[in-house]
Amino acid sequence: MNILFTGASSFTGMWFVKELVDAGHNVTAVFTRPLAAYSGVRLQRVQIVQPLCQCLFDVRFGDEAFLSLVNSQQWDLLCHHAADVTNYKSPQFDPVKALANNAHNLANTLEVLRNRGCSEIILTGSVFEQREGRGTKPLRAFSPYGLSKGLTYDLFAYYSGVYGISLSKFVIPNPFGPYEEERFTSYLIDTWMQGKIPQVKTPSYIRDNVPVTLLAKAYRKLVAKRTSTYHPSCYAETQGLFAKRVADAMRSRLQLPCELQLCEQTSFQEPLERVNSNNIDWEEVQWNESAFWDEFADYYLQKVAIR
User: Fold this and answer.
1) Quick check: pTM over 0.90?
2) Which residue ranges form the domains of the chain, and what is each CATH number?
3) How far apart are CA 223 and CA 166, in angstroms?
4) 124-138: string of b/e by CB count within 10 Å (b at 16+)?
5) Would you say the C-alpha torsion 13, 18, 21, 23 has a positive or negative sign?
6) How far apart are CA 208 and CA 287, in angstroms?
7) Cis peptide before 138 (omega within 30 of 0)
């Protein structure tokens, strides 16, 4: 298929593009900033994507450059993976502004897409949106960022209906793996590699952690067999148990003790449980768990070697 993809510089976006290209699709990836504006791990991800597909920079969803691109050829599918994530952890995150960025010029964009043969869209969602996942009721948004993602889907659902375009939703839980942002697993591994013992301060939270390569194969599956909503799930367990899982997988691969300090959790500012509901069939998508952990460990070993 001829696929237009937004958000390829993101952690998950890079892996999704790799899987789509591997499946034989023709992917055109658009990036919101000029190439020179990227740095760090995000630049590394852009550099990995560049040889795989056509890459266009300084193009934002809905702007004139984007509409010109859409008008330039026929499209089978739009994968709208990009989202406004600036300071997404901040309670001051503006969901209305993020919605405006995520769905800029949406009605006109969908009309042009339809006229160029595109009849299907896959929109990326988050398990931390309102009404998504399963767990502690009510299923409210975790944050203003989560709220913006849910609002974005509602707007896309409305206008997709107006223009007769089929809309699928890929709901992401907690991805981890090579080229990740600085989050929970990176904290664990970096701390071990410094010869220290990481503290797990929220071991009681039940979350859904998914290896990014497995998540990418699930995305590839959705592109091949689209459904209305897909909630891929893998390690749905407490963060304490997940930390032990990471430690067990990394101990021999890093040749480190990989000890943990599980703290007694006293603060529960977030819902106790939020996970996805569709377990991924590893055999069906041809994913090897041991190979993933090997690749993950090698990524951090190479980072240390570079330093």
Assistant:
1) yes
2) 2-172 (3.40.50.720), 181-207+237-306 (3.90.25)
3) 12
4) bbbbbbbebbbbeee
5) negative
6) 18
7) yes
pLDDT one-digit tens code per residue, 245-273: 999 999 999 999 999 999 999 999 999 99
DSSP sequence for 73-85 = S--SEEEE-----
Residue 235 sits at φ, ψ, to 5 deg, of -90, 80
| Nearest residue to 258 via CA among 185, 182, 189 | 189
Residue 5, SS3 per DSSP: strand
Confidence band, pLDDT 50/70/90 cuts, at residue 228: confident
Structural contact between residues 95 and 20, judged by C-beta atoms closer than 8 angstroms: no
For residues 214 and 203, give the distance between their C-alpha atoms in angstroms, rounded to a whole number. Answer: 24
Rounded to 5 degrees, φ, ψ at 140 are -85, 165
Retrieve residue 57's tokens: 């920079």
Site of tokens 């009681």: 204
